[in-house]
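User: Study the fold:
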Amino acid sequence: MNGPEIHLSVAPELHLFVAAERRGGRTPLTTDGASTLGHAVESLGIPLTEVGRLVVDGREVPFSHIPAAGESVDVRPKERPQKVPGAPLRFLLDVHLGTLARRLRLLGVDAAYFSEDVGDAALAAYSARDRRVLLSRDRGLLRRRELWAGAYIYSDRPDDQLADVLGRFTPPLAPWTRCTACNGDLKDATKEAVSAFLEGGTQRSYDVFAQCTACDRVYWRGAHHAHLEKIVEDAVSAFGNAASQAR
């Protein structure tokens, strides 16, 4: 590029997206004189889903701002908790985030997920059609223009991923109300009503059941319940109040 030179400072929260030489303060960036500031920031590797504000010489500007020579630009992260206006807060997760999807559903959070790779175009279209926040660790996917909304998942550890999403978006929590397999709603069920879905040992050992209204999967407090209960208790303790206050 051979155009106006601007001076750019990237917030520490966004340093992982940029080259090391841009992490020490304000650095020069030569623009092409025609592209938007949003495009210039994105070309450095920062998904715009992670940018909260662009501040030029002390005033906030839109992503569509065309940079002029000598401008000082501050790239700031999304504020937390992040508001997502325009639709009920719902999520869509890419194929690599299956554990996070199941944990969100365990907490009653609406989290759509495909267990097979349906492709970036299909995910972006689904996000736009259903107005879902797309969660992904794929920066290229988050750059697709047709997305309704998106968010980068910063960790590859499910515990940290869950805490990140709950802290960033503060969704209402309703544990044990959603099917972890298909995202459908659960309803209480009698043993007699679900007996056809149970093995003999389960019928003899358990009396309290729930069933998915969408896929018919049956749930009971089995061997893994203590582990799941710990996930729920930790999430509600850390983020339950935040979710209530955000509403």
User: Anything to note?
Assistant: The mean pLDDT is 93. The longest strand covers residues 5-10. The chain has eight helices and twelve strands.
